[in-house]
Amino acid sequence: MASDEREEVPKKLEEMSVGFIGAGRMAQALCRGFINTGLIKSSSVIASDLDSNMLNYIGELGVKTTKNNKEVVQNCDLIVIAVKPHIVTPILKEVSHLVSRRNLFVSIAAGVTLDTIENYLPPKTRVIRVMPNTPALIQTGASVFAPGKHALDNDSDVVATLLSSIGICAETSEQMMDAVTGLSGSGPAYGYMAIESMADGGVKMGLPRDLAVKLAAQTLMGAAKMVLDTGKHPGQLKDEVCSPGGTTIAAVHSLEKSGFRASLIAAVEAATERSKELGRKEEEGSSRQQKRI
Ligand SMILES: NC(=O)C1=CN([C@@H]2O[C@H](COP(=O)(O)OP(=O)(O)OC[C@H]3O[C@@H](n4cnc5c(N)ncnc54)[C@H](O)[C@@H]3O)[C@@H](O)[C@H]2O)C=CC1
Ligand SMILES: O=C(O)[C@@H]1CCC=N1
User: Fold this and answer.
1) 89 and 167, same domain (yes or no)
2) Residue 185 CA, closest ligand 2 atom number
3) Per the database record, which ranges form the Pyrroline-5-carboxylate reductase catalytic N-terminal domain (predicted)?
Protein backbone atom coordinates (compact mmCIF):
# COMPACT_ATOMS: atom_id res chain seq x y z
CA MET A 1 0.00 0.00 0.00
CA ALA A 2 1.40 3.39 -0.93
CA SER A 3 0.12 5.17 2.14
CA ASP A 4 -1.75 4.67 5.38
CA GLU A 5 -2.78 0.99 5.78
CA ARG A 6 -4.76 1.81 8.90
CA GLU A 7 -7.18 4.04 7.05
CA GLU A 8 -10.66 2.55 7.28
CA VAL A 9 -12.43 1.40 4.15
CA PRO A 10 -15.72 3.36 4.09
CA LYS A 11 -18.73 1.11 4.34
CA LYS A 12 -21.74 3.20 3.48
CA LEU A 13 -22.40 5.00 0.25
CA GLU A 14 -23.82 8.04 2.03
CA GLU A 15 -20.53 8.44 3.91
CA MET A 16 -18.43 8.30 0.77
CA SER A 17 -16.89 11.21 -1.09
CA VAL A 18 -16.95 10.74 -4.85
CA GLY A 19 -14.40 12.06 -7.33
CA PHE A 20 -14.35 12.26 -11.10
CA ILE A 21 -11.06 12.46 -12.97
CA GLY A 22 -12.16 13.79 -16.34
CA ALA A 23 -15.32 15.88 -16.29
CA GLY A 24 -16.49 15.34 -19.86
CA ARG A 25 -19.74 14.01 -21.28
CA MET A 26 -19.92 10.70 -19.47
CA ALA A 27 -18.73 12.10 -16.13
CA GLN A 28 -21.34 14.85 -16.36
CA ALA A 29 -24.08 12.32 -17.15
CA LEU A 30 -23.10 10.08 -14.21
CA CYS A 31 -22.55 12.93 -11.79
CA ARG A 32 -25.89 14.57 -12.61
CA GLY A 33 -27.62 11.19 -12.43
CA PHE A 34 -26.12 10.34 -9.01
CA ILE A 35 -26.95 13.76 -7.57
CA ASN A 36 -30.50 13.77 -9.00
CA THR A 37 -31.28 10.46 -7.34
CA GLY A 38 -30.17 11.88 -4.00
CA LEU A 39 -27.69 9.07 -3.36
CA ILE A 40 -24.77 11.47 -3.50
CA LYS A 41 -24.71 15.03 -2.21
CA SER A 42 -23.08 17.56 -4.51
CA SER A 43 -21.02 18.74 -1.55
CA SER A 44 -19.39 15.27 -1.43
CA VAL A 45 -18.19 15.40 -5.06
CA ILE A 46 -14.94 16.71 -6.53
CA ALA A 47 -14.29 16.71 -10.27
CA SER A 48 -11.00 17.39 -12.03
CA ASP A 49 -10.34 18.23 -15.65
CA LEU A 50 -7.76 20.19 -17.61
CA ASP A 51 -10.49 21.99 -19.53
CA SER A 52 -12.07 24.96 -17.70
CA ASN A 53 -15.24 24.72 -19.80
CA MET A 54 -15.84 21.15 -18.62
CA LEU A 55 -15.21 22.20 -15.03
CA ASN A 56 -17.71 25.04 -15.43
CA TYR A 57 -20.38 22.65 -16.78
CA ILE A 58 -19.96 20.09 -14.02
CA GLY A 59 -19.58 22.89 -11.46
CA GLU A 60 -23.16 23.92 -12.24
CA LEU A 61 -24.20 20.84 -10.25
CA GLY A 62 -22.71 22.40 -7.14
CA VAL A 63 -19.71 20.06 -7.02
CA LYS A 64 -16.18 21.22 -6.19
CA THR A 65 -13.92 21.47 -9.23
CA THR A 66 -10.16 21.45 -9.65
CA LYS A 67 -7.50 21.14 -12.35
CA ASN A 68 -5.47 18.98 -10.00
CA ASN A 69 -6.19 15.23 -10.36
CA LYS A 70 -4.19 14.50 -7.22
CA GLU A 71 -6.65 16.51 -5.14
CA VAL A 72 -9.38 14.06 -6.19
CA VAL A 73 -7.39 11.03 -5.06
CA GLN A 74 -6.38 12.63 -1.79
CA ASN A 75 -9.93 13.65 -0.88
CA CYS A 76 -12.24 11.02 -2.33
CA ASP A 77 -13.17 7.47 -1.40
CA LEU A 78 -14.63 6.46 -4.74
CA ILE A 79 -12.83 7.78 -7.81
CA VAL A 80 -14.36 7.51 -11.27
CA ILE A 81 -11.76 7.52 -14.04
CA ALA A 82 -13.66 9.19 -16.86
CA VAL A 83 -10.96 10.20 -19.34
CA LYS A 84 -10.45 8.78 -22.83
CA PRO A 85 -8.86 5.31 -22.81
CA HIS A 86 -5.36 6.47 -23.86
CA ILE A 87 -5.28 9.00 -20.98
CA VAL A 88 -6.06 6.39 -18.31
CA THR A 89 -2.53 5.10 -17.76
CA PRO A 90 -0.90 8.56 -17.69
CA ILE A 91 -3.44 9.54 -15.02
CA LEU A 92 -2.76 6.39 -12.99
CA LYS A 93 0.98 7.07 -13.16
CA GLU A 94 0.36 10.63 -12.02
CA VAL A 95 -1.68 9.69 -8.93
CA SER A 96 -0.48 6.20 -8.02
CA HIS A 97 1.86 7.31 -5.21
CA LEU A 98 -1.10 8.94 -3.43
CA VAL A 99 -3.40 5.93 -3.52
CA SER A 100 -4.37 4.41 -0.19
CA ARG A 101 -6.63 1.60 1.02
CA ARG A 102 -9.35 4.22 1.33
CA ASN A 103 -9.63 4.58 -2.47
CA LEU A 104 -11.92 2.57 -4.70
CA PHE A 105 -11.18 3.14 -8.41
CA VAL A 106 -14.04 2.87 -10.89
CA SER A 107 -12.95 3.03 -14.51
CA ILE A 108 -15.47 3.65 -17.25
CA ALA A 109 -12.89 3.73 -20.05
CA ALA A 110 -13.73 1.58 -23.07
CA GLY A 111 -11.40 -1.37 -23.52
CA VAL A 112 -9.00 -0.66 -20.67
CA THR A 113 -8.73 -3.88 -18.67
CA LEU A 114 -8.70 -4.41 -14.93
CA ASP A 115 -5.20 -5.90 -15.25
CA THR A 116 -3.90 -2.77 -16.93
CA ILE A 117 -5.41 -0.53 -14.27
CA GLU A 118 -4.29 -2.71 -11.38
CA ASN A 119 -0.73 -2.84 -12.79
CA TYR A 120 -0.41 0.92 -12.56
CA LEU A 121 -1.76 1.17 -9.02
CA PRO A 122 -0.30 -0.06 -5.72
CA PRO A 123 -0.80 -3.78 -4.96
CA LYS A 124 -4.27 -4.69 -3.70
CA THR A 125 -5.90 -1.50 -4.93
CA ARG A 126 -9.66 -1.95 -5.21
CA VAL A 127 -10.77 -1.48 -8.80
CA ILE A 128 -14.08 -1.94 -10.60
CA ARG A 129 -14.53 -1.65 -14.36
CA VAL A 130 -17.84 -0.21 -15.49
CA MET A 131 -19.42 0.34 -18.88
CA PRO A 132 -22.25 2.87 -18.52
CA ASN A 133 -24.05 4.80 -21.23
CA THR A 134 -25.13 8.42 -21.60
CA PRO A 135 -28.88 7.96 -20.88
CA ALA A 136 -27.66 7.71 -17.26
CA LEU A 137 -28.20 11.47 -17.39
CA ILE A 138 -31.97 10.89 -17.36
CA GLN A 139 -31.94 7.81 -15.13
CA THR A 140 -32.40 5.49 -18.10
CA GLY A 141 -28.87 4.17 -18.31
CA ALA A 142 -27.72 0.62 -18.94
CA SER A 143 -24.55 -0.23 -17.03
CA VAL A 144 -22.52 -3.35 -16.53
CA PHE A 145 -19.64 -3.77 -14.10
CA ALA A 146 -16.86 -6.26 -13.42
CA PRO A 147 -14.98 -6.17 -10.11
CA GLY A 148 -11.18 -6.37 -10.00
CA LYS A 149 -9.13 -8.87 -8.00
CA HIS A 150 -9.09 -6.83 -4.79
CA ALA A 151 -12.53 -5.24 -4.87
CA LEU A 152 -14.57 -6.04 -1.78
CA ASP A 153 -18.15 -7.29 -1.87
CA ASN A 154 -19.09 -3.96 -0.34
CA ASP A 155 -17.45 -2.17 -3.30
CA SER A 156 -19.58 -4.13 -5.76
CA ASP A 157 -22.67 -3.34 -3.66
CA VAL A 158 -21.87 0.38 -3.63
CA VAL A 159 -21.27 0.47 -7.37
CA ALA A 160 -24.40 -1.59 -8.07
CA THR A 161 -26.47 0.76 -5.89
CA LEU A 162 -25.14 3.83 -7.68
CA LEU A 163 -25.60 2.39 -11.16
CA SER A 164 -29.05 0.96 -10.41
CA SER A 165 -30.16 4.42 -9.33
CA ILE A 166 -29.54 5.72 -12.86
CA GLY A 167 -31.00 2.83 -14.85
CA ILE A 168 -30.46 -0.89 -15.09
CA CYS A 169 -27.26 -2.48 -13.90
CA ALA A 170 -25.74 -5.95 -14.17
CA GLU A 171 -22.56 -7.55 -12.88
CA THR A 172 -20.60 -9.70 -15.30
CA SER A 173 -17.20 -11.26 -15.85
CA GLU A 174 -14.70 -8.95 -17.43
CA GLN A 175 -14.54 -10.93 -20.67
CA MET A 176 -18.04 -9.67 -21.52
CA MET A 177 -17.11 -6.01 -21.19
CA ASP A 178 -16.02 -5.41 -24.80
CA ALA A 179 -19.29 -6.84 -26.12
CA VAL A 180 -21.21 -4.76 -23.57
CA THR A 181 -19.35 -1.71 -24.86
CA GLY A 182 -20.30 -2.61 -28.44
CA LEU A 183 -23.95 -3.07 -27.50
CA SER A 184 -25.07 -0.73 -24.72
CA GLY A 185 -22.04 1.57 -24.31
CA SER A 186 -22.07 2.68 -27.94
CA GLY A 187 -25.70 1.69 -28.54
CA PRO A 188 -27.35 5.06 -27.84
CA ALA A 189 -25.65 6.33 -31.01
CA TYR A 190 -27.31 3.59 -33.07
CA GLY A 191 -30.65 4.55 -31.54
CA TYR A 192 -30.12 8.24 -32.38
CA MET A 193 -29.24 7.29 -35.96
CA ALA A 194 -32.38 5.19 -36.20
CA ILE A 195 -34.50 8.09 -34.89
CA GLU A 196 -32.85 10.53 -37.27
CA SER A 197 -33.33 8.22 -40.24
CA MET A 198 -36.94 7.41 -39.43
CA ALA A 199 -37.62 11.12 -39.04
CA ASP A 200 -35.97 11.71 -42.43
CA GLY A 201 -38.34 9.13 -43.84
CA GLY A 202 -41.27 11.00 -42.33
CA VAL A 203 -40.02 14.29 -43.75
CA LYS A 204 -39.57 12.67 -47.17
CA MET A 205 -43.19 11.59 -46.99
CA GLY A 206 -44.32 15.13 -46.10
CA LEU A 207 -44.27 15.39 -42.28
CA PRO A 208 -42.90 18.52 -40.61
CA ARG A 209 -39.43 17.85 -39.09
CA ASP A 210 -40.27 18.50 -35.43
CA LEU A 211 -43.30 16.19 -35.51
CA ALA A 212 -41.30 13.54 -37.39
CA VAL A 213 -38.48 13.55 -34.78
CA LYS A 214 -40.96 13.35 -31.89
CA LEU A 215 -42.88 10.49 -33.48
CA ALA A 216 -39.69 8.57 -34.26
CA ALA A 217 -38.26 9.00 -30.74
CA GLN A 218 -41.53 8.15 -28.96
CA THR A 219 -42.02 5.11 -31.22
CA LEU A 220 -38.57 3.68 -30.42
CA MET A 221 -39.05 4.45 -26.72
CA GLY A 222 -42.43 2.71 -26.81
CA ALA A 223 -40.99 -0.31 -28.59
CA ALA A 224 -38.13 -0.52 -26.08
CA LYS A 225 -40.55 -0.28 -23.14
CA MET A 226 -42.76 -2.98 -24.66
CA VAL A 227 -39.79 -5.36 -24.79
CA LEU A 228 -38.77 -4.57 -21.20
CA ASP A 229 -42.24 -4.42 -19.65
CA THR A 230 -44.01 -7.32 -21.38
CA GLY A 231 -41.05 -9.71 -21.43
CA LYS A 232 -42.25 -10.87 -24.85
CA HIS A 233 -39.72 -11.82 -27.52
CA PRO A 234 -39.05 -8.82 -29.83
CA GLY A 235 -39.91 -11.06 -32.80
CA GLN A 236 -43.36 -11.72 -31.37
CA LEU A 237 -43.94 -8.02 -30.74
CA LYS A 238 -42.87 -7.32 -34.33
CA ASP A 239 -45.31 -9.94 -35.60
CA GLU A 240 -48.09 -8.24 -33.64
CA VAL A 241 -47.54 -5.03 -35.63
CA CYS A 242 -47.52 -6.78 -39.01
CA SER A 243 -51.06 -7.12 -40.38
CA PRO A 244 -51.37 -9.67 -43.22
CA GLY A 245 -50.90 -7.82 -46.50
CA GLY A 246 -50.50 -4.59 -44.50
CA THR A 247 -48.08 -1.69 -44.33
CA THR A 248 -45.59 -3.03 -41.77
CA ILE A 249 -44.76 -6.27 -43.54
CA ALA A 250 -44.01 -4.22 -46.67
CA ALA A 251 -41.56 -2.15 -44.59
CA VAL A 252 -40.08 -5.27 -42.95
CA HIS A 253 -39.43 -6.76 -46.40
CA SER A 254 -37.73 -3.55 -47.46
CA LEU A 255 -35.56 -3.53 -44.30
CA GLU A 256 -34.56 -7.16 -44.83
CA LYS A 257 -33.60 -6.46 -48.47
CA SER A 258 -31.29 -3.67 -47.35
CA GLY A 259 -29.62 -5.78 -44.65
CA PHE A 260 -31.04 -3.97 -41.61
CA ARG A 261 -30.38 -6.78 -39.14
CA ALA A 262 -26.96 -7.59 -40.57
CA SER A 263 -26.01 -3.89 -40.33
CA LEU A 264 -26.85 -3.74 -36.63
CA ILE A 265 -25.11 -7.04 -35.89
CA ALA A 266 -22.03 -5.78 -37.75
CA ALA A 267 -22.18 -2.47 -35.85
CA VAL A 268 -22.09 -4.20 -32.46
CA GLU A 269 -19.29 -6.46 -33.73
CA ALA A 270 -17.24 -3.49 -35.01
CA ALA A 271 -17.58 -1.59 -31.73
CA THR A 272 -16.67 -4.72 -29.73
CA GLU A 273 -13.55 -5.28 -31.84
CA ARG A 274 -12.57 -1.64 -31.42
CA SER A 275 -12.97 -1.92 -27.65
CA LYS A 276 -10.69 -4.98 -27.65
CA GLU A 277 -8.15 -3.07 -29.76
CA LEU A 278 -8.17 -0.10 -27.36
CA GLY A 279 -7.61 -2.53 -24.47
CA ARG A 280 -4.69 -4.25 -26.21
CA LYS A 281 -2.94 -0.93 -26.79
CA GLU A 282 -3.13 -0.03 -23.12
CA GLU A 283 -2.19 -3.57 -22.06
CA GLU A 284 1.02 -3.38 -24.11
CA GLY A 285 1.96 -0.19 -22.28
CA SER A 286 1.10 -1.84 -18.97
CA SER A 287 3.34 -4.89 -19.59
CA ARG A 288 6.22 -2.56 -20.49
CA GLN A 289 5.55 -0.72 -17.21
CA GLN A 290 5.52 -4.01 -15.25
CA LYS A 291 8.87 -5.07 -16.74
CA ARG A 292 10.40 -1.80 -15.53
CA ILE A 293 9.14 -2.35 -11.91
N1 LIG B 1 -19.46 9.09 -24.13
C2 LIG B 1 -20.03 7.91 -23.93
O3 LIG B 1 -21.15 7.62 -24.40
C4 LIG B 1 -19.33 6.88 -23.10
C5 LIG B 1 -18.01 7.01 -22.75
N6 LIG B 1 -17.39 6.05 -22.01
C7 LIG B 1 -15.98 6.20 -21.63
O8 LIG B 1 -15.90 7.34 -20.80
C9 LIG B 1 -14.63 7.95 -20.95
C10 LIG B 1 -14.82 9.43 -21.17
O11 LIG B 1 -15.56 9.60 -22.38
P12 LIG B 1 -16.34 10.94 -22.67
O13 LIG B 1 -16.91 11.49 -21.42
O14 LIG B 1 -17.21 10.66 -23.83
O15 LIG B 1 -15.12 11.86 -23.15
P16 LIG B 1 -14.94 13.43 -23.02
O17 LIG B 1 -13.88 13.80 -24.00
O18 LIG B 1 -16.25 14.12 -23.09
O19 LIG B 1 -14.36 13.60 -21.53
C20 LIG B 1 -13.06 13.31 -21.17
C21 LIG B 1 -12.54 14.48 -20.35
O22 LIG B 1 -11.24 14.17 -19.88
C23 LIG B 1 -10.54 15.39 -19.80
N24 LIG B 1 -9.10 15.14 -19.69
C25 LIG B 1 -8.20 14.89 -20.69
N26 LIG B 1 -6.96 14.75 -20.17
C27 LIG B 1 -7.09 14.89 -18.81
C28 LIG B 1 -6.19 14.85 -17.74
N29 LIG B 1 -4.87 14.60 -17.93
N30 LIG B 1 -6.65 15.05 -16.48
C31 LIG B 1 -7.98 15.31 -16.27
N32 LIG B 1 -8.88 15.36 -17.25
C33 LIG B 1 -8.44 15.15 -18.51
C34 LIG B 1 -10.94 16.10 -21.07
O35 LIG B 1 -10.66 17.51 -20.98
C36 LIG B 1 -12.41 15.78 -21.16
O37 LIG B 1 -13.22 16.79 -20.57
C38 LIG B 1 -13.93 7.26 -22.11
O39 LIG B 1 -12.91 6.44 -21.64
C40 LIG B 1 -15.04 6.45 -22.79
O41 LIG B 1 -14.55 5.25 -23.30
C42 LIG B 1 -18.05 4.94 -21.54
C43 LIG B 1 -19.36 4.77 -21.86
C44 LIG B 1 -20.10 5.68 -22.70
O1 LIG C 1 -17.16 5.68 -28.44
C2 LIG C 1 -16.55 5.35 -27.42
O3 LIG C 1 -15.40 4.92 -27.50
C4 LIG C 1 -17.23 5.45 -26.07
C5 LIG C 1 -17.29 4.11 -25.39
C6 LIG C 1 -18.72 3.70 -25.44
C7 LIG C 1 -19.40 4.87 -25.93
N8 LIG C 1 -18.59 5.83 -26.23
Assistant:
1) yes
2) 6
3) 18-111
| Interface pTM, i.e. ipTM | 0.99
Q: Is 256 exposed, middle or buried (0-12, 13-18, 19+ CB in 10 A)?
A: exposed
pLDDT tens-place string over residues 40-98:
999 999 999 999 999 999 999 999 999 999 999 999 999 999 999 999 999 999 999 99
CB 105 within 8 A of CB 79: yes
Q: What angle do CA 123, 9, 159 make, to 5 degrees?
A: 90
* Other beta carbons within 10 Å of 289: 15
State whether the Cα torsion 196-202-207-212 is positive or negative. Answer: negative
According to DSSP, residue 259 is labeled: T
Residue 249 belongs to domain spanning:
186-258
Ligand 1 centroid from CA 28, angstroms: 10
**Are 114 and 58 contained in the same domain?**
yes
Looking at 177, 201, 222, which one is the last position of a domain?
A: 177
Q: Report pTM.
A: 0.94
Note whether 64 and 150 are same-domain residues: yes
Ligand 1: which of 31, 58, 84, 181 to mutate, most ligand atoms within 8 Å of CB?
84
